[in-house]
Amino acid sequence: xxxxxxPTPRSESGRSESGSVPAAVVNRLxxxxxxxxxxxxxxxxxxxxxQLGERLGFxxxxxxxxxxxxxxxxxxxxGYRCDELINEIRRILGTxxxxxxxLVGVGNLGRALxxxxxxxxxxxxxxxxFDSDPAKVGSHVEGIEIRPIEEISQVVAQxxxxxxxxxVPAAFAQAAxxxxxxxxxxxxxxxxxxxxALPEGVSQVGVDLARELEQVSFAVASRLRAEGA
Amino acid sequence: xxxxxxPTPRSESGRSESGSVPAAVVNRLxxxxxxxxxxxxxxxxxxxxxQLGERLGFxxxxxxxxxxxxxxxxxxxxGYRCDELINEIRRILGTxxxxxxxLVGVGNLGRALxxxxxxxxxxxxxxxxFDSDPAKVGSHVEGIEIRPIEEISQVVAQxxxxxxxxxVPAAFAQAAxxxxxxxxxxxxxxxxxxxxALPEGVSQVGVDLARELEQVSFAVASRLRAEGA
DNA sequence: GTCTGTGAAAGTGTTCACAGCG
DNA sequence: CGCTGTGAACACTTTCACAGAC
Lengths: 229, 229
Known about the structure:
The structure is a homodimer of 229-residue chains.
Chain A: H1 23-41, E1 46-47, H2 49-56, H3 60-68, E2 80-81, H4 82-93, E3 99-104, H5 108-115, E4 124-131, E5 140-141, E6 144-148, H6 152-158, E7 163-166, H7 170-183, E8 187-190, E9 203-206, H8 209-228
Parallel strand pairs in A: 3-4, 3-7, 4-6, 7-8, 8-9
Antiparallel strand pairs in A: 1-2, 5-6
Helix pairs in contact in A: 1-2, 1-4, 2-3, 6-7
Chain A binds a DNA duplex (22 and 22 nucleotides) through helix 3.
């Protein structure tokens, strides 16, 4: 459960390899999905690469090229049927089925993740939560019972958990990830501000809240420097 | 306060323009910063592009090229003094000063953001919080008083707020952003699953929890397809 | 006429490999 | 020697522009 120097480090920006589709394309794909869902909610049934691109800040060619990686989903002279394209993208992303997710770490952020309403509709069900704090174990958050860390491997197997979310303090994140991986989880979203070393075959995406703010502060600071100088 | 078709849409992946430094470079920069801080915590005072790269999954050349965008911070034959490079990167990212941040939306996620311990040490102080729910207004979360949305512009000016975090439901995110921008905020981190349209000169980074999971599920689904097929 | 799908061109980002400094 | 900083080679992405489908 320590972490001297395990395999495959991998950073935030990209997940591990995945065939030959650029990470940036997959990123945009899920942006297209979200926007298509908004379009449908607005009562729009058909769209075009230029409309979709315009709403997201991409070129029409970009949208078409991205989709071309996976097939030909449009109708020349017409555009894309929204519901059709939604289904295609969900299939590509794998969210045409439900993924079960386990959460490790029920602090402030963990509780927010358990209560987050946006997962279910996109095909993710948070099915188990774990914490090392005996005071939390046994209690229920959002209808989910908090279990002790020691039960991860049993529960992950029993509940057929696919993915993990790590929301523990930085110092414990690698250990938490190691346990999840040993239990058979295939991918992890890591909210701790560390780069996890995971074995090949386990995907990771990192979300670091302070880093997100840093990206913004850089942009603002650059602008201020440009103006001020 | 509606949002027919305002300026500059911009997606998650990139922030607005910022001189000529690629977004990916800035992303990695803050990853380098984080790792350097870990190195210092481990008692390591000097590092090299290859050590830094290895721990993050990048090549040594990548690390050196990234830094070269901003200057020459290393010592040939020696490497990089960790504390020196940390200072340089903080200066570049703009976090050599404190940025004040306002939060709009004190739901589950908003509360987690107010309680998040990782902001302060990186140069961000959440100094104000707003919510439209009268039941929440007036209460205190993590020592911060929740104020009504109507007071945003007054408070942002008075407290000299630099950045905003939007953690309201998708349908209200554009309006919340509009108010923040009108009040003078220069950058926004948006946790709502929509693409905000912001005027030029205001930076945005989007964090969409469901999308992060989708990136992982794509990678896992790809691997399963490859194996299974 | 509209809009897709796609080769070819242009533009960016990454890796290589080495000169030069400590 | 070791390691940085960097031009030059390479790889990858994006944009262009058009043939073909509706």
